[in-house]
Amino acid sequence: MHTVWKGAISFGLVHVPVKMFSATEDKDISMRYIHKECTTPLNFVRKCMTCEREVQWEEIARGYEYEPGAFVLFEKDELEKLNGEVTKEIKILDFVQLTDIDPIYFQKTYYLAPNETGGNAYNLLLEAMRQSGKIGIAKVSIRSKSSLAAIRVIDNCIAMETIFFPDEIRSIDQVPNLPEQINVNDKELQMAKMLIEQLSTPFEPEKYKDDYREAVLRAIEQKVNGQQVSVAPEPHKTNVIDLMSALQASLDAMKPVPETDAPPAAKEKKPKAKKKVKEETVS
Predict the structure, then answer these.
(1) Spatial CB neighbours of 57, under 8 Å, sequence gap ≥ 6
(2) Helix ranges restricted to H, the chain
(3) Structure letter (DSSP) for residue 175
(4) Cα–Cα nearest to 29, from 245, 195, 235, 210
(5) Single pTM value for the model
(6) Taking 70 as the threshold, does the pLDDT of residue 26 lie above it?
(7) Under a CB-based contact definition with an 8 Å cutoff, are residues 75 and 69 in contact?
(8) Which of 171, 164, 155 is nearest to 108 (CA)?
(9) pLDDT in tens, 223-240
(10) How many CB atoms neighbour CB 101 within 10 A?
């Protein structure tokens, strides 16, 4: 994996030299904008409307518009110094329970590996956090952005989750049309809880997949091979008109159908139906 940052975790007077690696990867399928008339890829040009020419990266500064048309300018190194980038430090401020943090705060996960000289201190912090059951809340600056972070243990690795500052979380009061009081029908509530119980299972992330990405990859392969893109038909939707009926239909759909309940005629026709589907797919 590519090292994205080097620095140290500090708690008290203890420093743990570490290297940082991104724990996740974006698997979105990248597509370019194409001119349909000639199939030429389009480029986005950084053009100055006053000088009427393309601007190179070394000519670009950052600016804050404090009033319409008026800017204060900052060079990259100025912002880095203000942001504490030169310290290269993940400073743990407090230790808390992971369950104390609402998931809305979490942003991105990184793995932290011990630097060549930091193995002993790394192991000490890892094991102390594991046995205490606590996670660290730290401040860190990565790529000119200051952030809060949660330092925790995943297996035999110290991981860092960047988290939002409290003033970056929007208030629920801004959400329109929320109910002032929760009033529900007791029978509907009981059925909804039964449906939740029916759908409850241990979290197994490997069973979930990105259906859209798989469909796009299939479509790309079909187009490369000169085939027409085939789209799966939309699933049949039942015309449920009220909430109670929807709940009951959902519960009925969750019930397994015993093999003995199927009539003999249906069992005999089953292989034939499969063959018909296969033939339609081939054609």
Answers:
(1) none
(2) 76-82, 119-132, 186-199, 211-224, 243-254, 264-282
(3) S
(4) 210
(5) 0.71
(6) yes
(7) no
(8) 164
(9) 888 888 777 677 666 665
(10) 16
